[in-house]
Amino acid sequence: MEMKPLPFSEPLTGLSEKGIAIHHDTLYAGYVKKSNEIRTALEPLEHGGDVASANQSYSELRALKDGETFALNGVYLHEAYFDVLGGNGKPNGALADALARAYGSIDAFIAYMSACGMAARGWAVLAYDPIASELRVYTGDAHNHGGVWGAQPIIALDVYEHAYFIDTGADRKTYIAAFWNNVDWKKANARYEKAVGNR
């Protein structure tokens, strides 16, 4: 697995270049590195290695499998987070229309997902659930908690302190507002249309 570059080059409003660089080049990069390390460690176990010690309390296999979902979801969620940044925050397109239908208005949706971001310890994620054929906002206290299998992340809002402390200190609410001001709705629409097309 290789680290993806930032998908935008222009400075963001309210989110500093330094903060984004640390978030992307250190934290996200760390999840990519650990995902690769775990993958390498699992390969011999997947191909006839000694798994006789597997145990639900503690075993090498349990630790690796737990670390696998934490690190890999850390990669995928951060890629979804960075993927929709770099815009002017003006909602439009099929996704905005679908959100207005589902939540009554785009403002109501943003208020709800922002509140989910205040309530979560790690993530608020707008996802398309292909089984229910609907958009849902899920929260997670860790990368491998709170997600629903099969649901495709459309907009991922990172609310871990590392995402905003350098810019807003403990003021998460101001950070969340800045996030929405930088959403690229064309990219979010593309993610939505791909998810709906894959159902």
> How many structural domains?
2
CATH superfamily of the largest domain: Iron/manganese superoxide dismutase, C-terminal domain
Roughly how many Å apart are the termini? Answer: 25 Å
Q: Pairing-aware structural class of the strands and helices?
A: mainly alpha
| Strands in their spatial order, largest beta sheet | 2-1-3
Write down the overall mean pLDDT. 96
**Gyration radius, in Å:** 18 Å
CATH classification class of the largest domain: Alpha Beta
Sheet with the most strands, sense and barrel status = 3 strands, antiparallel
Could you give the count of β-strands? 3
H/E element string? HHHHEEEHHH
Secondary structure elements and pairings:
Layout: H1 17-46, H2 60-83, H3 93-103, H4 106-119, E1 123-129, E2 134-140, E3 152-158, H5 165-168, H6 172-181, H7 185-197
Antiparallel strand pairs: 1-2, 1-3
Describe the structure.
- With 199 residues, this protein is mainly alpha-helical.
- It has two domains: 17-83, Helix Hairpins (Orthogonal Bundle); 93-197, 3-Layer(bab) Sandwich (minor pseudopilin epsh fold).
- Helices cover 53% and strands 11% of the residues.
- The protein has helices at residues 17-46, 60-83, 93-103, 106-119, 165-168, 172-181, 185-197, and strands at residues 123-129, 134-140, 152-158.
- The protein has a three-stranded antiparallel beta sheet.
- A hairpin with a 4-residue loop joins strand 1 (123-129) and strand 2 (134-140).
- Helix 1 packs antiparallel against helix 2 (60-83) and helix 3 packs across helix 7 (185-197).
- The radius of gyration is 18 Å and the shape is globular.
- The protein starts with 16 loop residues before the first helix and ends with a helix.
- 29% of the residues are buried.
